[in-house]
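Researcher: Please predict.
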Amino acid sequence: MTKKRVLLIGGAAAVALLLAGCTTAVQPTAEPLDLTSPEAVATALRSTLVGLLLFLPKMLAAMVLFVLTLYLAAWISKLARRILERRRSDPGATLLIYHITRWSIVILGTITALRQVNFEVTAFLAGLGILGFTVGFALQDISQNVIAGFLLLIQKPFELGDLIQIDEYTGTVRSVDLRSTGLETRDGHDVLIPNAYVFTKPIINFSRQATWRISIPIGVAYDSDLDLVQRVTLQTIRGLPDVLDEPSPTLHFHTFNDFSIDFTLNYWVDGRVTNPFTATHPAIITLQKAYAQAGIEIPYPIQTEIQVQRSQADHQSS
């Protein structure tokens, strides 16, 4: 916590404590003050001055206690966070304990400081609860984000460094605080998503599962030997270094298309070693070479091109 911030908070606290002291030092009299009587006015002013002078030491003590509370809250919360990080505790739980420790100390220190000036803490807390309810209703979006942030830190659907997908956003978790969750997308952009949005949307955590299934749709010509296609495809994909033996690669034909017989090749990779989003690159290159050597044809719509050429020739002749 910076010195400038402490001075600003201390000044605001001093004004609040001074106002509280004025209300406690000046006791209302049973009879109204006679402003036409100089002696009554002088007596009232003397009484008020004496009350403020008696209150001044209490106010200074309360201010010192409040400022020390701010420093103590920052120091203890950082110490707790450092200890948990050394023990390699869960980052989400560490962040949650850090915030709970800091704000608990600040709240207890503030209540103690208010008691030094004979402030009615019970009535203050009751009024603060009503005010908090009103402000929370007015700022319900912010309140939802804060509550969702606490719930995310408790439930831990993801951790820092995990690769996740939230709706249309996919990226690595960089930060989780009480307002938003920060992602670094695959194209290098930083995205801050409100916690209330994160909490209510489906979350796919790619880092929780080490193995990934990769699927490649392929089509071969109608005159192809499908047994040969299956044998060459599986032998080729099993020869890649990043492909796992278990679960083993699979292949199944499923569609008689207009120009090809289509099938889907499924194989598994270790996401901790191989980037799952680029795992199809070496497979496609290797399969294309294997198909060329084996004489397996991957067709393309020649008929469409012939129709276009005929239509152009007819147009020229007309």
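Model: Confidence is low (pLDDT under 50) at residues 24-30, 303-313.
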